[in-house]
Amino acid sequence: MKKLVATLLCLILAVSMTAVTASAADEQITLLVWDTFTSDSMRAGIETINQMFMDAYPNVTIEHLSKDLDSMSQTLKPAFMSGDAPDVIYHEMGISEMGDYVKAGYLMNLSDAYAQYGWNDTLMSVSKAVPSVGDFVYGVGHEVETMGLYYNPAILEEVGVGVPTTVEELTAAMAKIKEAGYIPMGNTLDQYWYNNMNFVGTVLYAFMTKDEIDACMNEDASWDTASVRLAVETIQEWIDEGYFPDHPEVSTEQQVMFALGESAFWVTGNWSVGQLSDVGIDDFTYAIIPFPGSETCADGGSQVNFVGSGFMVSNLSENKETALQYIDFCLNTAEAAKVWYEVSQVIPPYTGDSGAEINDYLKIITGYLSDPSISNVAGINMWLGSNAFEFFSHAGQNLVLGVYDVDGFIQAADEATAADVAAGGTKGTIQFDD
Amino acid sequence: MQGVKFKERYNKKQVIAGYLMILPALALFAVFFVYCLVQAFHYSLLDWNGVGSSVFVGLSNYRELFTNDVFWLSFGNNWYYALGIIVFGVFPGMLLAYLLSGPSVRGRAIFRSVYFLPRIISAVVYGMVWVWIYDPRRGLLKKIIDLFGGQSIAMLGDIHTAMLGITITGGWTYFGFCMVIFLAAFMGRDQLLQESALIDGATRLQIFWKIDLPQIKPVINMLIIYTIIDSFKVYDLVLVMTGGGPNNATQIMTYYIYLQAFELNRYGYGSAVAIVLGVFMVIFTILYNYLAERED
Asked: Hey, are the CB atoms on B157 and A192 less than 8 Å from each other?
């Protein structure tokens, strides 16, 4: 009798365990995702990929909510504070935006996930470099962008100048282009942070060595170096010589000016490829090269790269493994990369062959991004603290207005960095429990 | 005596029913205004980045803001904007309303609608339109200056003129609103007084100054208070047109609060500025009402 009872109990236990295992595998999981894919093309891309993921993982339902950047910033804090944060967040990843969340312990460390899913090998390095503080990696960057020097070959040919290979050659070329009646440099240094930061950051990287950039980025080093002084002096010289459009302190439609053949050079990023095609001038052709380094820079200078935003996982999530599978699917598969290229017209960090059909300009840009001979480094807006970010948001405009000379510029930059250091808001000073 | 009358006219059930009816509105007011106000004051005493732990710092945020040059610049710019709106919005609106209120004006409703139109357009839209108007390279202002052979100016890019540029834009959108209110006030004037004055030989200017204006004085007072309070809440126009620049030349209180709280993650300091702004507005309103009543 005892044997029978024991056998029955074993049977019941075995059956119940099988049932539990089966239910775990079939368990329906709802993954809440907040993203900033608000444009039509980005939303179309993510909705396609979400559906592909749900087809591949039938037990997972993706609930995604798209918000603009400001709404995301303003609603994410209360969501974390109240314990209602989404499982996956897609948002800007700079330390000025996400540093407070890292400090508060709200974001999952993805170091192990990079090894587990092979992201270290298959994704562009900038994807990991931007959302990293030491060994703590709080995200996976997406929408890879790079600054470059866009130029009008017809103007260069007409004026008789070659394609510049150094900043010094660029300066000389601009002098001739101005004499010929064209606007040499079609950028404005206006009220918009990105028009200041992207331009000033690009010129800074042309003069600073990679070690100097790394010291500022990770160790809060002073901006008072010979290379930074030369970079600021160069921008000041271009302003003084009138190489920018009239009143560069006020914004204008730079892409229109460039497409109409009014300006010869334009320092911009690959998002402008779409803008230039939107202008709709059929016979307009242009060329793109990496922004040339300075002859004075020991290592030849670096290119400014960005990740538009990236995926992060909430530490409060109960579905972390599924969240990681989702990110892996979105960024580390050829089929998703194809969607990002073709539907959303952005460059994903995936380095494998996606089989996507992309236009010639994007092919050139992806070539530069994966060229090992080019030093690709995360742009300053990706790692500045909030006070330094604010300073560089107006730095170019303030140079135009004469608010700063070179000394004033460097002093103000150092003061802003010092304020970030005091607040523990830089990569070098941020304190958190891993 | 009022209390006795009240008791006589309403029984207890009616009084309770009355209080019950205002309770939902009162509850909403308490939750969405009083609670938020108390919470904002609480935040203003903290050093807090919006997430994670906070540190109680007492009044140090207030001490800091009173010694901060940009705070005072913002405060001054708000006054500049408020007074500018009175000059470019309220006065033109009043004059236009006076002209349109004449008995011989035809098509009054059309004028009223046309002039009111800017008020119903989003600030982002007309802000962008005015950015183009001021564009020193291709803008309308440049084209007008070119006609007279002048040199183009960067209205929004010059530290000395940027605030003026924003104020003119604000006035342009505001004068139609003032015109509608003043028109209603002028239409309600006592015509007999005007006719008597005319018979007594008063000029148009004398009638306007001594008879019309005193009759609409409560409207003027109300509109000036409303304008100043409204001007201290301006935000979107600055955001779109200059972003507070160049070099903080168009920094205003609301944008400064946003910058501190949401861009620099200083929720405590930003809340302190918001509390000071609120307290200032309450004091200003009480003082202005007191002076207006005493004058009456």
From this structure: no
Indicate whether A263 belongs to any domain.
yes
pTM, 2 dp: 0.83
Residue type (1 letter), A431: Q
Residues A328-345: tens digit of each pLDDT: 999 999 999 999 999 988
Contact A398 B50 (CB under 8 A): no
CATH classification code of B64-295: 1.10.3720.10
**Same domain, residue pair A138 and A151:** no
- A125-159 in b/e form (b: 16+ CB < 10 A) is bbbbbbbbbeebbbbbbbbbbbbbbbbbeebbeeb
Task: CATH number of the domain at A95, please.
Answer: 3.40.190.10
pLDDT for res A14: 54
Residues of chain B contacting A415 with CB distance shorter than 8 Å = none
User: Can you state the angle between helices B123-134 and B162-187, rounded to 10 degrees?
Assistant: 130
Residue among A105, A191, A250 minimizing CB distance to B136? A250
CB-based contact A386 B264, cutoff 8 Å:
yes
A140 and A172 share one domain: no
User: Average pLDDT of chain A?
Assistant: 90
Residues A277, A193 share a domain: yes
Do A314 and A383 fall within a single domain? no
Which of B36, B39, B49 to mutate against chain A (most A CBs within 10 Å)? B49
- Residues of chain A with C-beta less than 8 angstroms from the C-beta of B263: 386, 389-390
- The ipTM of this complex is 0.79
Strand partners, A313: A88
